[in-house]
């Protein structure tokens, strides 16, 4: 087995604003860019630059940290002008390395020609960017993406879904990517429905990366709901949508309307009162109806008792 390495420039280690994980991360990005410049598929004509695809989850595996930490590392690298990111629909961000980051890429840059003239290596594509470096520092494994990996990287990178949420969806769908996409769509629609209804759409509390309730708590909720879903897909989707709407009401901190039950101040038991037929629902008066003297006196006594009651 051939050992592979990446370069870790001294300038990164001595940068007082760059932590060790940040230095390793930018080195990994630079190493991968060495492959990008040999593949026209990784050239952005609008930016006039080559880019790399390095999802949060894959970087987290290499650095042995969480995807949230990687997100912070990427933001730090952007603030220090090492990288810029361009979001893509339903795909991980494009990462462009700035001139500040390209401190040791002269050996690559001098051999770059027009991307249209380049041949596409078989080992470099959106689904498979493998490392191929010979310098001595950090050891890495080949990165191979299968269909499930691509889906996980897609939803975690573009939607910032928690890894536990993604795992629960894949467990329920048995790694059926098409069905998994539909489950994610139901989650997004339920979230948008509640946010729109309560006028908090696009607010921080409605974003997966900002609201802690939309991480592990959502994963636990999904696990519970999945265990009760009907076998029929249509019925299951309706049940899931209803359950998630209730969840997002709680996750967003929205207090649901409560039914106020009246409480009597007096502790005296309530007595059943006599109700004449003409007060009962559906009563229809006839000419033959007559009230006896006894009934008249009883009704008048009842009316007087209402007037004498203390509230």
Description:
This protein has helices at residues 10-14, 20-36, 56-63, 67-79, 106-109, 147-158, 163-173, 177-197, 216-226, 233-251, 293-308, and strands at 5-6, 43-44, 49-50, 83-88, 91-97, 124-125, 128-129, 138-139. The chain is mainly alpha-helical and 311 residues long. The protein folds into two domains: 5-145, Orthogonal Bundle (Arc Repressor Mutant, subunit A), CATH 1.10.10; 159-251, no CATH class. The strands form four sheets. It has a two-stranded antiparallel ribbon. A hairpin with a 4-residue loop joins strand 2 and strand 3 (49-50). It is elongated, with a radius of gyration of 33 Å.
Q: Strand count, sense and closure of the main sheet?
A: 2 strands, antiparallel
Q: What class do helices, strands and sheet pairing give?
A: mainly alpha
CATH architecture title of the largest domain: Orthogonal Bundle
Low-confidence segments: 104-128, 130-145, 257-262
How big a fraction of the residues is strand? 5-15%
Let me know the number of strands. Answer: 8
Widest beta sheet: strand line-up: 1-8
Topology as a string of helices (H) and strands (E): EHHEEHHEEHEEEHHHHHH
Which CATH class of the largest domain is shown?
Mainly Alpha
User: How many alpha or pi helices?
Assistant: 11
Range of helix content:
40-55%
- Give the overall pLDDT as a whole number: 76
The CATH topology of the largest domain corresponds to Arc Repressor Mutant, subunit A
Please state the oligomeric state of the protein chains shown. single chain
Shape by Cα distribution: elongated
CATH homology superfamily of the largest domain: Winged helix-like DNA-binding domain superfamily/Winged helix DNA-binding domain
Task: Report Rg.
Answer: 33 Å
The CA-CA distance between the termini, in Å, is: 91 Å
Number of individual domains: 2
């Amino acid at each position: 087995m051939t050992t592979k390495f990446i370069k870790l420039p001294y300038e990164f280690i001595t940068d007082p604003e760059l932590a060790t994980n940040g230095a390793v991360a930018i080195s990994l990005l630079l190493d991968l860019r060495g492959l990008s410049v040999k593949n026209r598929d990784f050239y952005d004509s609008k930016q006039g630059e080559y880019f790399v695809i390095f999802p949060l989850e894959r970087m987290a595996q290499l650095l042995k940290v969480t995807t949230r930490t990687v997100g912070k590392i990427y933001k730090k690298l952007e603030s220090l002008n090492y990288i810029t990111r361009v979001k893509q629909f339903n795909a991980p961000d494009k990462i462009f390395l700035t001139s500040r980051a390209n401190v040791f890429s002269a050996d690559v840059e001098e051999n770059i020609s027009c991307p249209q003239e380049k041949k596409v290596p078989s080992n470099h594509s959106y689904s498979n960017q493998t490392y191929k470096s010979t310098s001595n520092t950090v050891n890495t494994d080949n990165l191979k993406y299968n269909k499930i990996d691509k889906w996980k990287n897609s939803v975690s990178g573009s939607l910032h879904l928690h890894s536990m949420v993604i795992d629960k969806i894949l467990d329920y769908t048995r790694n059926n990517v098409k069905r998994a996409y539909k489950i994610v769509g139901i989650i997004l629609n339920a979230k948008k429905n509640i946010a729109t209804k309560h006028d908090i759409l696009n607010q921080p509390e409605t974003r997966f990366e900002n609201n802690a309730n939309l991480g592990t708590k959502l994963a636990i909720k999904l696990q519970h709901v999945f265990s009760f879903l009907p076998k029929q897909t249509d019925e299951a989707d309706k049940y899931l949508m209803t359950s998630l709407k209730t969840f997002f009401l709680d996750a967003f901190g929205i207090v649901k309307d409560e039914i106020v039950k009246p409480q009597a101040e007096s502790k005296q038991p309530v007595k059943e009162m006599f109700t004449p037929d003409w007060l009962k629902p559906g009563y229809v008066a006839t000419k033959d109806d007559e009230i006896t003297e006894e009934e008249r006196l009883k009704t008048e006594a009842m009316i007087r008792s209402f007037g004498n009651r203390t509230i």
